[in-house]
Write a structure and sequence with these properties.
- The complex is a heterodimer of chains A (95) and B (156).
- Helix content of chain A is 53%, strand content 13%.
- With 95 residues, chain A is α+β, with helices and mostly antiparallel strands.
- Helix content of chain B is 79%, strand content 0%.
- By secondary structure, chain B is an all-alpha fold.
- Chain B starts with a helix and ends with a helix.
- In chain B, helix 1 packs antiparallel against helix 2 and helix 2 runs antiparallel to helix 3.
- Classes of the chains: A alpha+beta (95), B mainly alpha (156).
Chain lengths: 95, 156
Protein backbone atom coordinates (compact mmCIF):
# COMPACT_ATOMS: atom_id res chain seq x y z
CA UNK A 1 0.00 0.00 0.00
CA UNK A 2 1.40 3.37 -1.00
CA UNK A 3 1.19 6.53 1.13
CA UNK A 4 -1.37 8.03 -1.30
CA UNK A 5 -3.55 4.94 -1.09
CA UNK A 6 -3.41 5.05 2.72
CA UNK A 7 -4.30 8.73 2.67
CA UNK A 8 -7.27 8.12 0.35
CA UNK A 9 -8.56 5.37 2.67
CA UNK A 10 -8.25 7.79 5.59
CA UNK A 11 -10.13 10.51 3.71
CA UNK A 12 -12.86 8.10 2.68
CA UNK A 13 -13.62 6.98 6.23
CA UNK A 14 -16.81 4.96 6.44
CA UNK A 15 -18.86 6.90 3.93
CA UNK A 16 -19.07 7.16 0.17
CA UNK A 17 -17.03 9.91 -1.48
CA UNK A 18 -16.57 11.35 -4.98
CA UNK A 19 -13.09 11.59 -6.47
CA UNK A 20 -13.14 15.37 -6.55
CA UNK A 21 -14.38 15.46 -2.94
CA UNK A 22 -11.32 13.45 -1.89
CA UNK A 23 -9.02 15.84 -3.75
CA UNK A 24 -10.68 18.85 -2.09
CA UNK A 25 -10.42 17.43 1.44
CA UNK A 26 -6.82 16.26 1.02
CA UNK A 27 -5.48 19.80 1.13
CA UNK A 28 -3.33 19.40 -1.96
CA UNK A 29 -1.82 16.06 -0.96
CA UNK A 30 -3.86 14.15 -3.58
CA UNK A 31 -3.57 15.53 -7.12
CA UNK A 32 -6.67 15.84 -9.23
CA UNK A 33 -4.89 14.37 -12.26
CA UNK A 34 -3.97 11.11 -10.57
CA UNK A 35 -6.93 10.49 -8.26
CA UNK A 36 -8.95 8.22 -10.61
CA UNK A 37 -5.88 6.22 -11.66
CA UNK A 38 -5.05 5.62 -7.99
CA UNK A 39 -8.66 4.78 -7.11
CA UNK A 40 -8.88 2.31 -10.02
CA UNK A 41 -5.68 0.63 -8.87
CA UNK A 42 -7.10 0.44 -5.32
CA UNK A 43 -10.30 -1.09 -6.64
CA UNK A 44 -8.28 -3.71 -8.52
CA UNK A 45 -6.49 -4.52 -5.25
CA UNK A 46 -9.82 -4.79 -3.44
CA UNK A 47 -9.28 -1.83 -1.08
CA UNK A 48 -12.28 0.13 -2.34
CA UNK A 49 -15.49 -0.48 -4.24
CA UNK A 50 -17.32 1.97 -6.46
CA UNK A 51 -20.68 2.60 -8.04
CA UNK A 52 -22.21 5.24 -10.28
CA UNK A 53 -24.27 7.89 -8.56
CA UNK A 54 -28.01 7.75 -9.07
CA UNK A 55 -29.16 10.57 -11.31
CA UNK A 56 -32.52 12.25 -11.46
CA UNK A 57 -34.32 11.64 -14.77
CA UNK A 58 -33.40 14.32 -17.30
CA UNK A 59 -30.13 15.20 -15.57
CA UNK A 60 -27.49 16.55 -17.94
CA UNK A 61 -23.96 15.20 -18.12
CA UNK A 62 -22.26 11.98 -17.16
CA UNK A 63 -22.83 10.43 -13.73
CA UNK A 64 -20.03 10.65 -11.19
CA UNK A 65 -18.56 7.65 -9.38
CA UNK A 66 -18.82 7.08 -5.64
CA UNK A 67 -16.05 5.26 -3.78
CA UNK A 68 -16.27 3.35 -0.52
CA UNK A 69 -13.72 1.46 1.60
CA UNK A 70 -14.18 -2.31 1.68
CA UNK A 71 -13.76 -4.42 4.82
CA UNK A 72 -10.51 -5.75 3.36
CA UNK A 73 -9.31 -2.20 2.68
CA UNK A 74 -10.03 -1.19 6.28
CA UNK A 75 -8.13 -4.22 7.59
CA UNK A 76 -5.12 -3.49 5.36
CA UNK A 77 -5.21 0.15 6.46
CA UNK A 78 -5.15 -0.88 10.13
CA UNK A 79 -2.24 -3.23 9.49
CA UNK A 80 -0.41 -0.46 7.62
CA UNK A 81 -0.94 1.94 10.53
CA UNK A 82 0.36 -0.64 13.02
CA UNK A 83 3.41 -1.24 10.84
CA UNK A 84 4.09 2.49 10.56
CA UNK A 85 3.80 2.83 14.34
CA UNK A 86 6.12 -0.12 14.94
CA UNK A 87 8.73 1.29 12.55
CA UNK A 88 8.58 4.76 14.12
CA UNK A 89 9.18 3.39 17.65
CA UNK A 90 12.68 3.36 19.07
CA UNK A 91 13.98 -0.04 20.28
CA UNK A 92 13.56 0.98 23.94
CA UNK A 93 9.93 2.07 23.34
CA UNK A 94 9.09 -1.09 21.44
CA UNK A 95 9.90 -3.35 24.42
CA UNK B 1 -21.76 20.64 -22.58
CA UNK B 2 -18.00 20.19 -22.26
CA UNK B 3 -16.14 16.99 -23.12
CA UNK B 4 -18.75 15.54 -25.50
CA UNK B 5 -16.21 14.64 -28.16
CA UNK B 6 -13.85 13.18 -25.54
CA UNK B 7 -16.67 11.00 -24.26
CA UNK B 8 -17.59 9.81 -27.78
CA UNK B 9 -13.97 9.08 -28.71
CA UNK B 10 -13.25 7.30 -25.43
CA UNK B 11 -16.34 5.11 -25.72
CA UNK B 12 -15.11 3.91 -29.11
CA UNK B 13 -11.43 3.58 -28.21
CA UNK B 14 -11.42 1.97 -24.77
CA UNK B 15 -13.05 -1.03 -23.13
CA UNK B 16 -16.28 -0.43 -21.20
CA UNK B 17 -14.52 -1.12 -17.89
CA UNK B 18 -11.59 1.22 -18.56
CA UNK B 19 -13.98 3.95 -19.72
CA UNK B 20 -16.25 3.58 -16.67
CA UNK B 21 -13.41 3.61 -14.14
CA UNK B 22 -10.84 5.99 -15.60
CA UNK B 23 -12.38 8.35 -18.14
CA UNK B 24 -16.08 8.73 -17.28
CA UNK B 25 -15.60 10.15 -13.73
CA UNK B 26 -13.02 12.64 -15.03
CA UNK B 27 -15.38 13.82 -17.79
CA UNK B 28 -18.23 14.04 -15.25
CA UNK B 29 -16.03 16.30 -13.09
CA UNK B 30 -15.20 18.40 -16.15
CA UNK B 31 -18.89 18.80 -16.96
CA UNK B 32 -19.72 19.71 -13.36
CA UNK B 33 -16.84 22.19 -13.08
CA UNK B 34 -18.47 25.42 -12.02
CA UNK B 35 -15.36 27.53 -11.59
CA UNK B 36 -14.91 30.08 -14.34
CA UNK B 37 -11.15 30.24 -13.92
CA UNK B 38 -9.09 29.00 -16.82
CA UNK B 39 -6.68 27.17 -14.50
CA UNK B 40 -9.48 25.06 -12.98
CA UNK B 41 -10.84 24.16 -16.42
CA UNK B 42 -7.36 23.29 -17.68
CA UNK B 43 -6.87 21.08 -14.62
CA UNK B 44 -10.16 19.30 -15.38
CA UNK B 45 -9.12 18.71 -18.99
CA UNK B 46 -5.73 17.46 -17.83
CA UNK B 47 -7.47 14.92 -15.56
CA UNK B 48 -9.45 13.63 -18.55
CA UNK B 49 -6.28 13.33 -20.66
CA UNK B 50 -4.50 11.44 -17.88
CA UNK B 51 -7.54 9.15 -17.55
CA UNK B 52 -7.48 8.52 -21.30
CA UNK B 53 -3.75 7.74 -21.23
CA UNK B 54 -4.28 5.34 -18.31
CA UNK B 55 -7.20 3.67 -20.16
CA UNK B 56 -4.99 3.32 -23.24
CA UNK B 57 -2.22 1.77 -21.14
CA UNK B 58 -4.75 -0.56 -19.49
CA UNK B 59 -6.07 -1.64 -22.91
CA UNK B 60 -2.59 -2.31 -24.31
CA UNK B 61 -1.58 -4.30 -21.21
CA UNK B 62 -4.80 -6.32 -21.35
CA UNK B 63 -4.34 -7.11 -25.07
CA UNK B 64 -0.68 -8.05 -24.54
CA UNK B 65 -1.61 -10.43 -21.72
CA UNK B 66 -4.30 -12.05 -23.89
CA UNK B 67 -1.87 -12.35 -26.82
CA UNK B 68 0.80 -14.01 -24.67
CA UNK B 69 -1.74 -16.36 -23.08
CA UNK B 70 -3.50 -17.36 -26.29
CA UNK B 71 -0.50 -17.64 -28.61
CA UNK B 72 2.05 -19.36 -26.38
CA UNK B 73 4.49 -16.55 -27.15
CA UNK B 74 7.36 -18.17 -25.25
CA UNK B 75 7.31 -21.27 -27.48
CA UNK B 76 7.07 -19.12 -30.61
CA UNK B 77 10.04 -17.00 -29.49
CA UNK B 78 12.09 -20.09 -28.64
CA UNK B 79 11.36 -21.62 -32.06
CA UNK B 80 12.24 -18.37 -33.85
CA UNK B 81 15.49 -18.10 -31.88
CA UNK B 82 16.35 -21.72 -32.63
CA UNK B 83 15.78 -21.09 -36.32
CA UNK B 84 17.87 -17.89 -36.23
CA UNK B 85 20.78 -19.63 -34.47
CA UNK B 86 20.64 -22.51 -36.94
CA UNK B 87 20.67 -20.12 -39.93
CA UNK B 88 23.51 -18.09 -38.43
CA UNK B 89 25.54 -21.24 -37.92
CA UNK B 90 25.03 -22.20 -41.56
CA UNK B 91 26.06 -18.71 -42.73
CA UNK B 92 29.23 -18.89 -40.62
CA UNK B 93 30.10 -22.25 -42.10
CA UNK B 94 29.38 -21.11 -45.67
CA UNK B 95 31.44 -17.94 -45.33
CA UNK B 96 34.49 -20.06 -44.77
CA UNK B 97 34.15 -21.85 -48.12
CA UNK B 98 35.39 -19.00 -50.37
CA UNK B 99 38.69 -18.75 -48.49
CA UNK B 100 38.24 -15.14 -47.43
CA UNK B 101 36.69 -15.68 -44.02
CA UNK B 102 38.36 -18.29 -41.90
CA UNK B 103 35.91 -18.41 -39.01
CA UNK B 104 34.33 -21.66 -40.21
CA UNK B 105 37.73 -23.26 -40.64
CA UNK B 106 38.83 -22.12 -37.20
CA UNK B 107 35.70 -23.53 -35.62
CA UNK B 108 36.07 -26.82 -37.49
CA UNK B 109 39.74 -26.93 -36.49
CA UNK B 110 38.64 -26.49 -32.87
CA UNK B 111 36.22 -29.39 -33.19
CA UNK B 112 38.69 -31.65 -34.98
CA UNK B 113 41.11 -31.03 -32.13
CA UNK B 114 38.57 -32.49 -29.71
CA UNK B 115 38.30 -36.25 -29.38
CA UNK B 116 34.64 -36.17 -30.52
CA UNK B 117 32.99 -37.80 -33.47
CA UNK B 118 30.19 -35.97 -35.37
CA UNK B 119 27.68 -38.47 -33.98
CA UNK B 120 28.63 -37.63 -30.42
CA UNK B 121 28.45 -33.90 -31.20
CA UNK B 122 24.98 -34.27 -32.73
CA UNK B 123 23.74 -36.31 -29.75
CA UNK B 124 25.23 -33.79 -27.32
CA UNK B 125 23.54 -30.87 -29.09
CA UNK B 126 20.17 -32.67 -28.98
CA UNK B 127 20.62 -33.36 -25.25
CA UNK B 128 21.57 -29.70 -24.63
CA UNK B 129 18.47 -28.53 -26.54
CA UNK B 130 16.17 -30.81 -24.52
CA UNK B 131 17.82 -29.76 -21.26
CA UNK B 132 17.30 -26.12 -22.23
CA UNK B 133 13.64 -26.80 -22.99
CA UNK B 134 13.10 -28.53 -19.63
CA UNK B 135 14.85 -25.66 -17.83
CA UNK B 136 12.77 -23.05 -19.68
CA UNK B 137 9.55 -24.92 -18.86
CA UNK B 138 10.50 -25.10 -15.18
CA UNK B 139 11.30 -21.40 -15.08
CA UNK B 140 8.01 -20.53 -16.78
CA UNK B 141 5.91 -22.75 -14.51
CA UNK B 142 7.74 -21.59 -11.38
CA UNK B 143 4.80 -19.55 -10.06
CA UNK B 144 2.08 -22.02 -11.00
CA UNK B 145 0.86 -24.01 -8.01
CA UNK B 146 1.69 -27.66 -8.29
CA UNK B 147 -1.39 -29.90 -7.92
CA UNK B 148 0.73 -32.39 -5.98
CA UNK B 149 1.54 -29.78 -3.31
CA UNK B 150 -1.85 -28.10 -3.21
CA UNK B 151 -3.09 -27.04 0.23
CA UNK B 152 -6.58 -28.18 -0.76
CA UNK B 153 -5.19 -31.61 -1.65
CA UNK B 154 -3.37 -31.86 1.70
CA UNK B 155 -6.53 -30.84 3.58
CA UNK B 156 -8.59 -33.35 1.63
Amino acid sequence: MSATEALLLDLMGDGERFGLELVATSGGRVKRGSVYVTLTRMEAKGFVESRQEERAPGAIGLPRRLYKTTAYGATVRQAYQSLQLAISLRPAEAR
Amino acid sequence: MRGRWMEAASRRLFSAESFALLVEPAIADLQLEESSSLAARMDAYRTVWIGMAAACDDGVARRARTFVRDNDLVSLTALALLHAVHSLWMVVLLLGLDGRVHLGREISAFFTGLPLSPGVLASASVIVLYAGRVLARRLISKHRPSPACSVVRIVE
